[in-house]
Design a protein that fits this description.
With about 500 residues, the chain is mainly alpha-helical. Helices cover about 75% and strands about 0% of the residues.
Length: about 500
């Protein structure tokens, strides 16, 4: 490596957890010679591929299933509203519905980072299962509310429990994979949620048919049954959720042997040298929060969340305004969500293959923006419904891209825990933004809400362009030997 002629910017160096890698930085060695030999061995690569598939099967499906029910539980208020809760509990008066949507995000925002800190201190299977059990019980209780105020209180509690689940899952997934494997895994994990949410509308319609069973209205059965499903999945999660890589051999029933764990550790160290956990401390939290790029990624995630929540909370209402019956509305709300999955998976596969993020984030924001404009200004039911397809596809695909882009450009498990929680925390702000800008008085066109969402997509495009140029400049400086990025000589930012 060229001799260093310029001082290293302290902002590029992670704090003390990387002291163990100082020799690594100075010599520019990516790994030990034994690891390099193994890495080039065809037999080793074959074993590694089988091991990666084994991890995929154990990590992604159970987390995806549990998160999918959280998405249904978070948005089932709109289904219950269409099915009669509106009148029964007085949500058709004033801004009560918007208030019930809004309060969820306050507690969801507050508990994101604390929850990810707890996740490293409590076994993942216990903590994530506990969170799911907690919000499942709350959702069940919503089925027995007799006015709108208990629903608001329940939404506050659901926000507390759900706050830690999504960032915890992203943190756990990103800890198992190399930088250019992670977007596809996040996309598959999130795809389960998207498909389930799509069919969640059909499930809700089926539950409404239980009208009068046990003396309960159909909309009440939506909450009761979906809450029970969540509790059952929490029990399954307790049995199946895997620990972090450095905790596997200490777990109750290791699903990998010592040799397999070493292979994973070697692979992660070759990729970014942060396989070992470093304790989360206040100085590390401060160091992470002072990195302006982390805030930019959080704003990008917020923009994606605005579109996601807008379509989740209001697309059924918009579709119903086309003149469809309640049953037709539930059936027509599912296809846009399901159709968005192939687009998201394809973009993620291509982004990992090309090792790039910014062009895809820009493309997905444009697709979301066009969809929003069609929903508001297109003439005729068909073009407006097509806008729902485009908008849903764009914002759902954007989520995995933005998450993966941040994960690619940070090092250290403590930094990863804080940054992923903060990024998802801003998703709560996106939910608040969507809930307040899509106003009841503007139903069904929601002109202010549409343009507020369009503004977030334009902002994302500008942020992506600016961040991409910044990373290009930093990479060129590192290539010339003028600086070390993220405390590792071989590290380069993903653009």
């Amino acid at each position: 490596m060229k001799e260093m002629h310029h001082s290293v910017d302290p902002a590029d160096l992670d704090p003390k957890p990387y002291i163990g890698h100082v020799e690594h930085v100075e010599k520019g060695e990516a790994s030990s010679s034994n690891q390099d030999i193994a890495h080039d061995n065809p037999e080793y690569l074959k074993r590694l591929k089988k091991l990666t598939l084994k991890i995929d099967i154990r990590v992604i499906p159970i987390l995806g299933a549990m998160y999918s029910i959280s998405g249904i539980d978070r948005t089932n208020l709109s289904n219950a509203r269409v099915a009669g809760m509106d009148v029964d509990l007085g949500f058709n008066q004033g801004n009560r519905y918007s208030i019930a949507l809004l309060v969820f995000f306050f507690t969801y925002f507050i508990f994101e980072i604390p929850s990810n800190i707890v996740l490293r201190k409590v076994p993942a299977h216990r903590y994530l299962a506990f969170l799911a059990f907690g919000w499942g019980v709350c959702i069940m209780c919503a089925g027995f509310a007799h006015n709108w105020i208990p629903i608001v209180i329940i939404r506050l509690l659901v926000g507390v429990f759900e706050a830690g689940f999504f960032p915890g899952c992203v943190y756990l997934i990103s800890s198992w994979y190399e930088r250019y494997q992670v977007q596809q895994r996040i996309a598959w994990f999130y795809a389960v949620n998207v498909v389930s949410n799509g069919f969640g509308n059909i499930l809700a319609y089926g539950l409404i048919q239980m009208e009068g069973v046990g003396g309960l209205r159909g909309w009440r059965w939506i909450f009761v049954i979906e809450g029970l499903i969540t509790v059952a999945l929490a029990a399954l999660g307790y049995a199946l959720i895997v620990p972090f890589p450095d905790q596997v051999l200490k777990s109750r029933k290791p699903f990998l042997n010592e040799d397999e764990v070493q292979m994973i550790t070697d692979r992660l160290n070759r990729d970014r040298s942060d396989a070992e956990f470093d304790e989360i401390t206040w100085p590390k939290i401060k160091h992470c929060l002072l990195k302006w790029e982390i805030w930019l990624f959080a704003l990008m995630f917020m923009s994606a969340a605005v579109g996601i929540y807008a379509f989740a909370f209001f697309s059924a209402i918009i579709i119903k305004s086309f003149g469809y019956s309640v049953s037709e509305t539930f059936l027509l709300a599912a296809p846009p969500a399901v159709a968005s999955v192939p687009f998201a998976i394809f973009c993620s596969w291509l982004a990992d293959r090309w090792r790039t993020r910014a062009p895809f984030a820009i493309l997905q924001s444009i697709v979301t923006l066009v969809g929003m404009i069609l929903v508001r200004y297109a003439h005729g039911t068909g073009p407006r419904y097509f806008g729902v397809f485009l908008g849903t596809a764009g914002c759902n695909a954007s989520l995995s891209t933005v998450l993966a882009w941040q994960a690619n450009n940070i090092r250290g498990q403590s930094t990863r825990a804080i940054a992923s929680a903060m990024q998802v925390m801003f998703g709560a702000i996106g939910g608040i933004y969507a809930s307040t800008t899509f106003m009841e008085k503007e139903l069904p066109h929601y002109t202010s809400g549409i343009w507020a969402a369009v503004a977030t997509q334009l902002a994302t495009i500008l942020m992506c362009i600016g961040l991409a140029f910044y990373y290009m400049m930093r990479n060129k400086q590192a290539n010339r030997g003028e600086r070390i990025l993220e405390g590792l000589a071989e590290f380069r930012y993903t653009i």
